[in-house]
Specification:
Layout lengths: L1 H9 L2 H13 L5 E3 H14 L6 H4 L1 H8 E7 L2 E6 L7 E5 L5 E3 L2 H11 L11 E4 L19 H15 L1 H12 L3 E2 L2 E2 L9 H16 L11 H7 L9 H16 L3 H8 L7 E5 L18 H23 L10 E8 L12 E3 L6 E7 L5 H4 L12 H16 L5 E5 H15 L2 E5 L4 H4 L7 H8 L1 H14 L2 E4 L2 H5 L14 E3 L3 E5 L8 E3 L20 H12 L7 E2 L8 E6 L8 H10 L1 H6 E6 L11 H16 L6 E4 L5 H13 L3 E4 L8 H9 L3 E4 L4 H4 L7 E3 L4 H17 L2 H17 L2 H22 L4 H26 L3
Parallel strand pairs: 6-17, 9-10, 9-13, 10-12, 13-14, 14-15, 15-18, 20-21, 20-23, 21-22, 23-24, 24-25
Antiparallel strand pairs: 1-2, 2-3, 3-4, 4-5, 7-8, 11-12, 16-17, 19-22
Helix pairs in contact: 1-5, 2-3, 7-8, 7-12, 7-30, 9-11, 11-12, 13-30, 15-16, 16-19, 19-31, 21-25, 22-24, 22-28, 26-29
The structure holds uridine-5'-diphosphate (UDP) and 1,5-anhydro-D-arabino-hex-1-enitol (LCN).
């Protein structure tokens, strides 16, 4: 960047820079974000009659393109520049046009001064820096490989085997001797003690099994293998055993990443998994659409079912059936005594359609019953997590008759509990964010003190730092969840460097280039959500009932609005009623476009219809706002608002019925971390218009299998939808083409089979990596513990005090 800046200063663009800087100084706002910077720049270009391509062709335009933020202090301007993904440079532009680099500390101090929270005495403020702990782990170099941690590790480990085969093969041998199931030894026994023996015996065993019929069950020759040093776990048939041994043989002789991955993915080492989803209503019926209960619950339930299936398949292929191996998956959540008709007050609930997957609900310790007996917002949940983890540990050990093999956390609270459990039980920890609130709320860290009463971000962001650094690996649904796009910062990236004025400065909050990050997107439940054209799998009476509910049924207790013309093309959306989901924005976009109203009806499935029924601030505000918009634009006769909570089958059928009517799905969120409704709509065959802010950018390929919208530009969004509608009116095949492409996209890229395979292979390779690298994480974990006890816990205690009087 410094060359680019120098080039500007040395050229005639210097005077443009001067005038633009003066333009910036005249802005009322002292803190400008990217969008605002671009606006000021285009105003400047218009005013000074710059050629149309000035932004693209000039050096200054380039600088502006890379600038994420500009902060003004006195006559200085601080440019926060992101020259490439996951990197940041900061410069001060002074009044006499000198550019000086600034340190991270100077930037954080400047931000503090901006909100009048600066403490000039050095050493007044705690500085958090996780950088040194990553010094001893290998890091990815090229930002485009971020999120492909496992490929990187495989490459790294196999090259290590190649260079230093003695040490790594020793580790591999010890690793293979480690595995047991319920006290039964797997893979290797004491007859194989050295690397040399391993290599010889593998060849012997290959020769032995290759002489047997390929489909002979492994039990028939179990004792011969045992005598050679091999225990169960190599395969269910002679052929499978031979294949596995061949892969090992190849790994010993000529290691490469694919062979390593192929071998480790076959090692039977995971049988018991915990998925922690602590807050919210976690159940199988009647919970969705409530505040805090949305995609995460859908995701975890589907993941549990599919993990069980995959573990069973793997155990069967490994030849462990006769050992009575029964993989078990437990979803750990809180028990809510006042459960409002749901099963959230039940300790144990079997997951439908599984043999051994369970929801285990552990109550919060008794405190003010107004809090602990009821649902608690995720923003208020922090004081209860430590004791919840302690109590859960006992219950998990009882349920599993031992320790689990893998603990997966979900969302900040679940990830913190996963950290506490994994630390105590010495188990591999995996994190899943679903959404990191930090990027959802603008300036949430800078103004944390003002927001504290409502959101308690000081606890949430501290918990995030703890859990993401402690995790052995992290899976994200998209690449941009980690490091954003060329012009926007990623969710994890936003934890790299930030200030929490008067609490701490984070100078290096997370290593984005660490192989711990892996992109593993979720799938969609293919039993509930499938293409509308699969009529043989649809139930006619359901279709008629849902159709009536969507378009004509009059029932003011749960449906608002009567359509003047139910035959118009439906624009459909379904989401929880919170601010970020922005259903009100969609209603407003529809309200402002008379033309859209001429062609279409708007149908929303959104939580509740009445303010009195909601206990959530944001939900109440959104309900009021939606009524207001309907009146303001007089949308009566053109909109239906369904305040219903649908069963899984009904929610699948609803998309299909909309597709029967050649409708479209719109997801208008101001920001969406991933967006399961988008997958659901697309697999059903609905042309989908989704926000360009967040995950949908990776799910949809614009104009190929769906469309991006900018939900802050209402007119532009309406025009995009109208363009599509009129294209379909001229050529009805157009709707079918996009519909089919949407279906294909989901089946090719977003299935639970792909997800679970990848997740399990990650868990295995990270298990092996932890074992072989003997990476000493103890110093990192001690640092993290100090944060937990010295920052998190006292603040949680304070919040608990406040809860006394709720
Ligand atoms: N959902 C539902 N009823 C509602 C609202 C949402 O069944 O009233 C379901 C929806 O089908 C999807 C999930 O809740 O499976 C929402 O997931 P998404 O990832 O779109 O958003 P989140 O709520 O997690 O932010
Ligand atoms: C939470 C969200 O906000 C959504 O974007 C995701 O799709 C969901 O969790 C599942 O990961």
């Amino acid at each position: 960047m410094s060359e680019l800046i120098q080039a500007i200063l040395d050229s005639e663009e210097k005077s443009d820079l001067r005038s633009f800087a003066s333009e910036l100084r005249q802005q009322e706002q002292k803190y400008l974000l990217r969008n605002e910077i671009l606006n000021v720049f285009s105003e400047y270009c218009a005013k000074s009659q710059k050629p149309e391509n000035f932004y693209a062709s000039s050096q200054l335009g380039k600088l502006i393109y890379y600038t994420q933020e500009i902060i003004q202090e006195d006559s200085n301007l601080c440019f926060i520049i992101r020259p490439k993904i996951a990197s940041q440079e900061v410069y001060r532009l002074t009044a006499d046009l000198t550019f000086e680099p600034m340190t991270v500390q100077e930037l954080l101090d400047l931000r503090d001064r901006l909100v009048n929270k600066f403490h000039p005495n050095e050493g007044d403020l705690l500085e958090l820096d996780f950088g040194p702990f990553y010094d001893y782990t290998p890091v990815i170099r090229d930002p485009k490989n971020i999120g492909k941690g496992v490929q990187f590790l495989n490459r790294y480990l196999s090259s290590k085997i190649f260079q230093d085969s003695k040490q790594l093969l020793d580790s591999l041998l010890n690793f293979l001797r480690l595995h047991q199931y319920n006290g039964i030894q797997l893979l290797l026994n004491d007859r194989i003690k050295t690397q040399q023996q391993l290599s010889e015996q593998v060849k012997k065993a290959i020769a032995f099994v290759s002489g047997r019929p390929s489909d002979e069950p492994c039990d028939e020759f179990r004792f011969q293998l045992q005598a050679m040093g091999f225990e169960p776990g190599w395969g269910n048939t002679a052929q499978r055993v031979q294949e596995t041994l061949n892969v090992l043989d190849e790994l010993i002789d000529s290691p490469d990443p694919q062979t390593l991955e192929a071998f480790i993915s076959r090692v039977p080492m995971i049988f018991r998994i915990v998925l922690v989803s602590a807050h919210g209503w976690f159940g199988q019926e009647g919970v969705l659409g409530r505040p805090d209960t949305g995609g995460q619950v859908v995701y975890v339930l589907d993941q549990a079912k599919n993990l069980e299936k995959q573990l069973q398949e793997d155990a069967q292929l490994a030849g462990l059936e006769k050992l009575n191996v029964q993989p078990k998956v437990i979803i750990l959540t809180r028990l809510i005594p006042n459960s409002d008709g749901t099963l959230c007050n039940q300790r144990l609930e079997k997951v439908h359609g599984t043999e051994n997957a369970w929801i285990l609900r552990v109550p919060l310790r008794d405190f003010n019953p107004n809090m602990t007996q009821n649902w608690i917002s995720r923003f208020e949940f922090w004081p209860y997590l430590e004791t919840f983890a302690l109590d859960s540990e006992r219950e998990l050990i009882a349920e599993f008759h031992g320790r689990p093999d893998l603990i997966v956390g979900n969302y900040t609270d679940g990830n913190l509990v996963a950290f506490l459990l994994a630390r105590r039980m010495k188990v591999t920890q995996c994190n899943i964010a679903h959404a990191l609130e930090k990027s959802k709320y603008l300036f949430s860290n800078l103004y944390w003190q003002d927001l504290e009463e409502k959101y308690h971000f000081s606890l949430q962001f501290t918990a995030d730092l703890i859990a993401m650094n402690a995790a052995n690996f992290i899976i994200s649904s998209t690449y941009q969840e980690i490091v954003g796009t060329p012009d926007s910062v990623g969710q994890y990236e936003s934890y790299k460097c930030f200030t929490m004025p008067e609490l701490y400065h984070v100078t290096n909050g997370i290593e984005l280039f660490s192989p711990k990050f892996n992109v593993v997107p979720p799938g969609v439940n293919e039993n509930s959500y499938f293409p509308y054209t699969r009529t043989q799998d649809r139930v006619e009476s359901d279709r008629d009932r849902i159709s009536e509910m969507l378009f004509t049924l009059e029932d003011s207790s749960q449906i608002f609005g009567k359509l003047d013309d139910p035959n118009k093309r439906p624009i459909f959306s379904m989401a929880r009623l919170d601010r970020i989901k922005n259903l009100t924005g969609l209603a407003e976009c529809f309200g402002q476009s008379k033309e859209l109203q001429e062609h279409c009806n708007l149908i929303l499935v959104a939580g509740k219809l009445r303010v009195e029924e909601s206990g959530d601030n944001e939900e109440r505000d959104e309900i009021v706002k939606l009524y207001h918009i309907i009146d303001e634009y007089n949308l009566h006769g053109k909109i239906r608002w369904l305040g219903v909570r649908l069963s899984k089958t009904d929610s699948g059928e609803i998309y299909r019925v909309i597709a029967d009517h050649k409708g479209i799905f719109v997801q208008p969120a101001l920001f969406e971390a991933f967006g399961l409704t988008i997958l659901e709509a697309m697999i059903s065959g609905l042309p989908t218009f989704a926000t360009q802010f967040g995950g949908p950018l990776e799910i949809i390929q614009d104009k190929v299998n769906g469309f991006y919208i900018n939900p802050t530009h209402l007119e532009e969004t309406a025009t995009k939808i109208l363009e599509f509608v009129s294209k379909c009116e001229q050529n009805p095949n157009y709707w079918d083409t996009i519909s089919q492409k949407a279906i294909d996209r989901v089946y090719s890229t977003y299935t639970w089979k792909i997800h679970t395979n990848k997740l399990l292979s990650l868990a295995r390779i990270y298990g092996f990596w932890n074992f072989t690298s003997k990476e000493n994480r103890e110093d990192l974990l001690r640092y993290i513990e100090a944060l937990f006890y010295l920052i998190y816990k006292p603040r949680a205690q304070q919040l608990l005090e406040q809860h006394k009087y709720r």
